[in-house]
Inverse folding.
């Protein structure tokens, strides 16, 4: 299972969204703590509780729980999962309403909750994303569901929505995906490559490395520069972090110390500070990096390699390159264009939410 959380200022927008789905026969109200079932009656009951904390801004909590397409869940089981999710997250004395949606190729559940309890206490949202993920893992075991890797366990970082949209427009893989493929292809050339072979293999494909090296020679991290696209290993995924790489390489700190110093000097000569260039900065740069002149000495080799990278978008989307958090797969019923427009006006707002 995967979960998406939204916190906002009111029930009305999200409630109306779900009720309209019910009216269109693509959703079903599974359970509710409210006496009434209409929009107005639910909002009146919410207001009755909200007056206990009138100054609390984000008192509304909305989560969608998404199940793999192969899961065959009855309404009763989904409702039980929803109740367990609320209980494990601390929503034991709170107003809620659950909806099951049928307008996607996978089962999914929407839960709307008032963070203000019947006693007037507000459930803390500290570490709520981490807590939610832990709860989902527990529920997968309890109900014998298909297990999904947590974000910490995922070997490759999932593709973001912006990357997905870019790939749809260009019909080409993102630079992050290209890097993942390139690094894997170099590591696959031998069981235990030397660090020198690893550095040279990546350089031949247009990738420079920057190591976070202490004066003692100890290396604590690694960054990759692929034709101006710069990213830390942790942002590519666990398989691309330095500790994971050392398990695949014949590496010795003292022996390879100078190699790393030399690699850092080469990276510095490009005029790019690898630790400070972010994905967002790269995404906002004008033009496509894939069409730029290669900044490296062996441009011919890089071009040959690019021709060998799988560029068929449909194949890539069906593959396992994007981890387990593909937003297009998880939330096909959400209008992301509308959500992004609202985000520009108010940070982290993903839904049209207004005060009750």
């Amino acid at each position: 299972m995967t979960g998406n959380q939204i916190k906002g200022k009111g029930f009305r927008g999200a409630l109306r969204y779900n009720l309209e789905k019910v009216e269109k026969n693509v959703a079903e109200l599974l359970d509710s703590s409210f006496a009434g079932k209409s929009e107005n009656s639910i909002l009146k009951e919410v207001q009755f509780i909200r007056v206990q904390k009138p100054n609390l801004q984000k008192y509304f909590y909305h989560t969608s729980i998404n199940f793999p397409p192969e899961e065959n869940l009855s309404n009763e089981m989904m409702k039980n999962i929803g109740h367990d999710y609320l209980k494990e997250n601390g929503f034991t004395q709170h107003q809620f309403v659950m909806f099951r949606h049928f307008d996607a190729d996978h089962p999914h559940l929407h839960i709307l909750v008032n963070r203000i309890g019947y006693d007037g206490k507000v459930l803390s949202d500290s570490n709520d994303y981490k807590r939610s993920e832990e709860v989902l893992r527990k529920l997968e075991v309890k109900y014998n569901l298909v297990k999904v890797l947590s974000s910490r366990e995922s070997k490759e970082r999932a593709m973001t929505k912006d990357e997905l949209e870019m790939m749809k427009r260009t019909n080409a893989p993102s630079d992050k995906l290209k890097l993942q493929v390139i690094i894997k292809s170099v590591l696959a050339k031998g069981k235990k490559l030397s660090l020198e072979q690893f550095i040279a293999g990546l350089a031949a494909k247009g990738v420079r490395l920057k190591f976070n090296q202490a004066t003692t020679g100890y290396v604590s991290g690694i960054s990759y520069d692929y034709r101006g696209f710069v990213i830390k290993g942790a942002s590519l995924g666990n398989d691309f972090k330095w500790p994971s790489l050392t398990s695949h390489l014949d590496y010795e700190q003292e022996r390879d110390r100078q190699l790393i110093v030399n690699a850092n000097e080469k990276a510095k000569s490009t005029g790019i500070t690898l630790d400070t260039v972010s994905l967002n900065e790269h995404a906002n740069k004008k033009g496509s990096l894939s069409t730029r002149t290669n900044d490296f000495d062996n441009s011919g080799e890089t071009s040959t390699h690019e021709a060998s990278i799988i560029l068929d978008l449909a194949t890539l989307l069906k593959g396992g390159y994007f981890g387990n958090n593909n937003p297009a797969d998880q939330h096909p019923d959400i209008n992301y264009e509308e959500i992004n427009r609202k985000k520009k006006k108010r940070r982290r707002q993903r839904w049209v939410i207004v005060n009750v």
